[in-house]
């Protein structure tokens, strides 16, 4: 069977690391490259985080490309230390001093365009961070979206609930203009895993403990980087996510990756046009679903609503049993 070809665009925080490991563990998936974007940390930290994940999984042959370090329009972005200042919990002390030499010289956006052009209609692009690299890609090559097989986005929201502002999800709030461009101009088949979707399909904290306590190198790495992170603290979430959705473990980016790896994971979805708000004082960066077609848009996206949580858990468990040949 021909392997599924994917490109991962990431702002590699802890949940991105979990999603990347899920792709690395999938035997029928071939990762053409990993492109980095600012978000959970500065893009330089993101590059280092991706290299660390690949090293843990003994998959250093996958090319890594440095991309956008700031939003498309505004000169600065929201500061967020959800996963620590470095994006991986601020616990890694033996960082590679030679990491820059391991990053490809080609810019991430150019690499994305090249890889997709070389493999037209065969590449699934999985976007796990702010959509800046994707917006730049369509500006440089207006035909870029139609060359893709499909696009999976982790980001946005469908109920107006926000996790970084009152109404906006983190990835879209970090660069609303890019989110707008992508959802307006990427006419390829597009799947969106929103923040609320991930939270409404959460796993248990008991599952999380079992996940990170497996006897494998990747599991030990994940246990380390989550050990001091408030995003994996039951206590710190009581006044945040738990208010909306109740207590549980959520690996946000892993839901988009799971859907890409195994389409049967998604059990229900909504097909409709969407829009990203750019002007609102409170709602800037919020994604809205136009289920009544009031916006008169011709292009719809697939917004996930429910999934097979057991299967997501199986994929997560397998992702931390790496390297495969240990």
UniProtKB/TrEMBL annotation:
Gene Ontology molecular functions: hydrolase activity, hydrolyzing N-glycosyl compounds
Stretches assigned to coiled coil: none
Protein origin, superkingdom: Eukaryota
InterPro entries: Inosine/uridine_hydrolase_dom (IPR001910), IUN_hydrolase (IPR052775), Ribo_hydro-like (IPR036452)
Boundaries of every Inosine/uridine-preferring nucleoside hydrolase domain copy: 6-311
Similarity remark: Belongs to the IUNH family.
Protein name per Swiss-Prot or TrEMBL: Si:ch211-201h21.5
Provenance organism: Cynoglossus semilaevis (Tongue sole)
């Amino acid at each position: 069977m021909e392997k599924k070809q994917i490109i991962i665009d990431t702002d590699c925080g802890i949940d991105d690391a979990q999603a990347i490991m899920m792709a690395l563990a999938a035997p029928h998936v071939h990762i053409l490259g990993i492109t980095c974007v600012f978000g959970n940390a500065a893009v330089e930290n993101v590059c280092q985080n991706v290299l660390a994940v690949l090293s843990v999984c003994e998959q250093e042959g996958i090319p890594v490309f440095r991309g956008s370090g700031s939003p498309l329009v505004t000169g600065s972005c929201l500061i967020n230390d959800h996963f620590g200042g470095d994006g991986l919990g601020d616990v890694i002390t033996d960082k590679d001093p030679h990491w820059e030499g391991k990053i490809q010289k080609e810019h991430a956006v150019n690499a994305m365009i090249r890889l997709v052009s070389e493999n037209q209609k065969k590449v699934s692009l999985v976007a796990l961070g702010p959509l800046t690299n994707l917006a730049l890609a369509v500006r440089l090559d207006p035909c870029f979206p139609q060359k893709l097989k499909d696009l999976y986005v982790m980001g946005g929201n469908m109920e107006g609930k926000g996790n970084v502002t009152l109404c906006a999800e983190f990835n879209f709030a970090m660069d609303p203009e890019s989110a707008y461009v992508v959802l307006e101009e990427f006419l390829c088949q597009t799947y969106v895993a929103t923040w609320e979707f991930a939270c409404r399909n959460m796993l248990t904290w008991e599952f999380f403990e079992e996940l990170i306590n497996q006897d494998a190198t990747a599991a030990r790495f994940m246990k380390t980087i989550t050990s001091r992170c408030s995003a994996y603290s039951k206590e710190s979430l009581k006044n945040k996510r738990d208010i909306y959705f109740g207590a549980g473990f959520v690996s946000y980016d892993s839901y988009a990756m799971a859907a890409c790896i195994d389409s049967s994971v998604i059990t229900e979805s909504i097909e409709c046009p969407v829009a990203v708000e750019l002007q609102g004082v409170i709602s800037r960066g919020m994604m809205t679903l136009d289920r009544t077609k009031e916006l008169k848009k011709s292009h719809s996206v697939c917004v996930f609503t429910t999934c097979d949580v057991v299967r997501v858990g199986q994929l997560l468990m397998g992702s931390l049993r790496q390297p495969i040949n240990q």
